[in-house]
Amino acid sequence: MSNTDSPFVENPLGAIEEAARQVNICNACRYCEGYCAVFPAITSARSFSEADITQLANLCHNCRGCYYACQYAPPHEFAVNLPKALAEVRQNSWEDFAFPRALGRQFHRSGAAIALLAFMAFAALFALARFVSGVGDAQGEGFYRLMSHTVMVSIFAPAFILPMLAVGVGLVRYWRATRPESGGSRWLHPRALALAYQDAMTMKNLGGGHDEGCNFEDEDRFSNLRRWLHQAAAFCFILCFFSTSSATLMHYVLDWPAPYPIWTPPKVFGVSGGVLLTLGSFGLAWLKTRADRDLGDGRVWGGEMGFVLLLGSVGLSGLLLYGLGSTPWLDVLLAVHLGTVLALFLLVPYSKMAHGFYRLAALVRDAQRRIDRGL
Amino acid sequence: MQVDVAVLGGGNAALCGAINAALAGCSVLVLESAPKPYRGGNSRHTRNFRCMHQGPVGPLTGAYLEDEYFDDLIKVTKGQTDEILARKAIRESEACFAWMHTQGIRFQPSLSGTLSLSRTNAFFLGGGKALVNALYRRAEQLGVRVRYQTEVTHVDMRDNRVAEVVFTDEQGAENRVQPRAVIAASGGFQGDTDWLERAWGPGAQNFLIRGTQYNRGVVLRDLLDQGAQSVGDPTQCHAVAIDGRAPKFDGGIASRLDCVPFSVVLNQNSQRFYDEGEDVWPKRYAIWGRLVAAQPSQIGHVIIDRRSLNLFMPSLYPPLVSDTLEGLVEQMGLPTGASLASISAFNAACANDLSGFRPTELDGLATRGIEPAKTNWARPITEPPFYGYTLRPGVTFTYLGLKVDQAARVQMQDGPAENLWAAGEIMAGSILGQGYLAGFGMTIGTVFGRQAGQEAGAYVKHR
Lengths: 375, 463
Prior knowledge:
The structure holds 2 protein chains of 2 kinds. Chain A is an all-alpha fold. Chain A contains 15 helices and 2 strands. Chain A has 2 domains: about 5-95, no CATH class; about 100-370, no CATH class. Chain A has helices at about 5-10, 10-30, 40-45, 50-60, 65-70, 80-95, 100-110, 110-130, 150-175, 190-200, 225-250, 265-290, 300-325, 330-345, 355-370, and strands spanning about 215, 220-225. Chain A has a two-stranded antiparallel sheet with strand order 1-2.
């Protein structure tokens, strides 16, 4: 966190200018073209507007290959640290695009705020289940005896939908803010979506160009560990989506309420997703303690760490709830799990969780650029 | 301190030597004069190596065979080469590709703007510093000890044998080590601007050094003083014309300027001095270093107009710009009247029909009746705004070096040294008597570095 006090860090315009200065050096050098999508996007232009820099910043996956390969990295007087410069622009852009804006800044920057929100969600749900009559379902089985299906849906449906609407506002803001001055085609090409999803699913941009991974936990050593851990956590969301969807169908269509046996889709997807999320999140948190903080945005290290630990807590508490659901720990574990899930849902637009949406949008924008250029 | 092989230097050649000596089972100590962030000598600024190949391999297209490679070398050196050593470098470059991959170096297709090299040169993914990182990691895996900020001050030769190596350590204290074999791979002397001045005259202080400031030729001088045979001429070097605003050292690739073919270049006296359009820039950038070095104050002034601004790779620094030629030459510090006269004369010598202009090929669009002529891409400088760049000579490395044999063994006045080998820029002058062939420095370093490591290892093990 060496220069978090430098003027450009607190001033979004300054961060853009600093990133543009570095990007111009990259464009005169070009050695890093093979690492990721950022450099081909740089070398296809000669000058860079705020929109271009914001797009490049969101396209950057912070794989750090370019930093360790850079002949102009500090102490060289050109002081090129592109992962950091782009991380700062990217962070500013997420805080700017967040709706409402004030929330973005608070949770992005403070792990303590994330922990506090998670604790408050836990306490509220614990108190609700424990002390408010009529919340539980006396006829229900398992955790429904503590909190009925109806109560859960009435809390979590809005807690999911409203933040997703806020994400939608953010994405519209992003798309407008990164519209290239040179135009490009007006309509989104379907192939751009396909290419972007492909890049996201394989996390190609953390592959280092040779598919041997990125530089993170051990300076210039290439490793796919971060890529795998990230995908473990990310694929959990797909599995959990299948789990929740199948449970919803079973609940409403088959009139088969939870709890479900282990061989049913909600459990198969849910438990495997929980294992992946727990391993992926705590693994990423551990890697983060080993990586050089000065190659990212030092202002949000705590917020990022708080967020990834929250993710891990969601996974771990879910597994514990499954394993210890028939013990006296049920009420505490249920409140912990639902509390962390609630905090996670609420934080989607205002925490590191937002990166997935903006990153995907940047990949779509970049794929569109390549298609427009006939690449 | 007990060590089998001491490697003096820390660039590509040094590490290739260290790795091969370690693979032979030797304990190896690398003495690198730079601090860790600047380790790797000039290798940290490189981007490719020139590689012979029979057919497509990795990112290399087509085939590039020994005879064509050697012909290319003869063209740039005008025959000033040691054919035996040159052919060894060329032939063994083919095996280097796979060997480098084994050491952890990765390759990528030729970079945008370098299509002309896609058949002949294999580009390192991430460039030379990524290569250097991979080699250090590999060397350390093999148990090689590396000490940074250690400058070798003396290689004590007794009866054509290195008896002792003296170096100052990180704290500035003097250390001595008695290795059984030594590989000298500490580069040229271009970092010592006083030595450059002794060779070139006072103008040399105006030269910029594109690469590391840590190649000061201390080991080279020390060995020459003790009777090592030298090759090359101290005024010969790989020098290119670069942006005059680049830093004194370590400006690297980004300080290149590719605009000369589309420009008029004036010297400090407002005179044109050479055909700016003689050939495509990748074939001419290396001679322009010497051309600019020969001008008053070692400076050239490049002037283009609006039409040419986007015809070349983006520059590190933005050009000077003015809506009038008067304004531009004033900003450049040139005498107005004489400069405008030179440009007018050039403009008047350009053809009226410019429709044959083809920026990517030799278009034959030439001036008439002016000396020196501009033989391609000659368009008058008439469309505002006008843009200006300053050129300075940028030295990459000097060619004065140690004479070696095919085994990379250093040759003393009265016979070969017993336990001293040399690799890389410190001996490249044997092969590059003058001129430069893109990517050939890294080929020489890799081939002779590997050779030196193997020879030193065998010497230690079989003695």
